[in-house]
Amino acid sequence: MKTALISHPDCLLHDMGHAIPEIPERLTVIDQAISSSDLMSQLQQYVAPFATKDQLLRVHDPEYIDYIFMSSPKTGTIPLDPDTWMNPYTLNAALHAAGAAVLGVDLVMTGKSKAAFCNIRPPGHHAERSTAMGFCIFNNVAVGVAHALEHYGIQRIAIIDFDAHHGNGIENIFLNNEKVLYCSSFEHPFYPFSGADTISDHILNIPLVAGTDGKDVRPKMQEHWYQRLLEFKPEMLFFAAGFDAFYQDVMSDLMFQVEDYAWMTREIIQLTQESTQHRIVSLLEGGYALGGLGDCVVAHLREICHLSRK
Ligand SMILES: [Zn+2]
């Protein structure tokens, strides 16, 4: 059985301009790196559908969804916040990005795919119930998690978020939902300046000082996440897969290497595989160093393909 690789051409048409690094070429370099890797024979490509309004309503307020639909410009770009802009194609891209998460869950839950990786943008983990921010409009991971919980009746889902920035949106949406164990590592103090003070037994944040490298982060993850992940026994595993902690990425001061992404992915999958039965959905979040982003994603995806293959 193959791993699903999900994307949509509209995700390339969302372009914010304004010297913002969240650019269409991110998806292109990832696509090229995957295409020229040894993974292609293990992947099945899918085109992401639109997320429906009902699927978005599980995690976003109705007024917010209406506001996003009404904000879509006919020409030019308009700001939702200083970092987050819409052009005429952004709404469709955002709906396909969230829809990719839903399709990923459907493929994994119906046994058509062993796992899924979504090469999509705009990213999602900063989007809160009613706030667009940090390049994010709809919270793609949250839409996928809510679909698994509500449509398939999954009872426990773990989300591993190794993006360099705290996933304030995922925390905001699932703060009072104990079916979700959210594990996030991020540079602190740093944008969005949240997460370091959160006290919750199902939100496990690891703030990292600038300059932290992969060797430093490994024991922190083992100390703060492993025991809880084992106790929680997640039935499904999501990755909010941001690659901006990579040492070449100017969007953070963290110093992760390609092999750190392989290590994190392998460790977490192996640790949880008895309860997850390899039900894994990973979605692209950040990652802006175009020279290394493809290698990071391939290292992550290789572990998913390898460990999901049965
Ligand atoms: Zn980030």
Helices, strands, pairings?
Blueprint: E1 3-7, H1 25-35, E2 43-47, H2 53-57, H3 62-71, E3 78-81, E4 84-86, H4 90-109, E5 115-118, H5 140-152, E6 157-161, H6 168-174, E7 180-187, E8 203-208, H7 214-232, E9 236-241, H8 258-276, E10 280-284, H9 290-308
Parallel strand pairs: 1-2, 1-5, 5-10, 6-7, 6-9, 7-8, 9-10
Antiparallel strand pairs: 3-4
Helix pairs in contact: 1-9, 4-5, 7-8, 8-9
Bound molecules: zinc ion.
Zinc ion (ZN) is lined by residues 163-165, 242, 244, 285-286.
Summarize the model shown:
The protein has 310 residues and is of the alpha/beta class. The chain has helices at residues 25-35, 53-57, 62-71, 90-109, 140-152, 168-174, 214-232, 258-276, 290-308; strands at residues 3-7, 43-47, 78-81, 84-86, 115-118, 157-161, 180-187, 203-208, 236-241, 280-284. The chain has a single domain, classed as Arginase, Chain A, CATH 3.40.800.20.
